[in-house]
From TrEMBL:
Keyword tags: Disulfide bond, Immunoglobulin domain, Signal
Protein name: Ig-like domain-containing protein
Transmembrane regions listed in the UniProt entry: none
Gene3D superfamilies: Immunoglobulins
Keyword Transmembrane: no
InterPro entries linked: Ig-like_dom, Ig-like_dom_sf, Ig-like_fold, Ig_sub, Ig_V-set, IgSF_V-set/TM_domain
Length: 127
């Protein structure tokens, strides 16, 4: 691979699979590196029951109406939330994980790059 001096966006999440007991808290970190644009990046979290299945919108750092209606009570109560840790890092928090939370969690960043390069999302499994 040739290095042209250009960087490529890299999105990473906590390594998995993550294994949690029902009723316990879970936190999944997501960060982005080697990007262009503003230092503060935005994050969206989605989940699906299986790796390639349809996703349910959970929470976003920039859109308060992002969440799927099926999760609105849990988001409003703070059971599901997103916390910005740094300009390029956010954390999905579930205060009390439920059995139906088992699945694949996808962290996505919006593009602020002049050229699309690298990955804009990363996924981890929660059991």
């Amino acid at each position: 691979m040739l290095n042209s001096g250009c960087s490529a966006r890299v999105v990473t999440v906590s390594p998995g699979p993550l294994i949690r007991v029902e009723g316990q808290p879970v936190s999944i970190r997501c960060d982005v590196n080697d990007y262009e644009g503003p230092s503060e990046q935005d994050f969206e979290w989605e989940m699906s029951r299986d790796a390639k299945g349809p996703t349910i919108k959970m929470v976003s750092t920039f859109d308060s109406s992002f969440s799927d209606p099926s999760l609105s009570k849990r988001v409003a109560s703070g059971d599901i939330s997103v916390v910005r840790l740094q300009d390029n890092e956010a954390e999905l928090k579930i205060a009390e994980v439920k059995s139906q939370d088992s699945g694949f969690y996808l962290c996505r960043t919006t593009s602020t790059d002049s050229v699309i390069s690298g990955n804009y999302e990363a996924q981890v499994q929660l059991k």
